[in-house]
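Field reference: sequence -> structure
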Amino acid sequence: MANKEQVKVLQPGKTEDKAVKSQVLAKAKKPQAQVGQPKKRRFTFFSDIIGELRKVVWPTRQETIRLTLIVIGLCIVMGVLLGAVDYGFSELVAKVLLGGK
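Structure field:
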């Protein structure tokens, strides 16, 4: 929140001393000292984590198995495709650039 000095300095069209303007802007940029109890904030952080973990919907055993099999299947398919492309390029390079070795 801006105080009265900051409002005066920041208003366009007002001619103020540049030194005063820079001091006011420097004060505005300084972070305010946080008043509070740091230990209390630490403990609320951990209690918030526990609260969020209680909201998580964990997958069932069947969903986990199904999704794991899908991932393994896609990895195998992509491995075969990338292997075929790699083999094709290696044969192409061997025939074109290395003279058919």
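Note: The chain has a mean pLDDT of 79.
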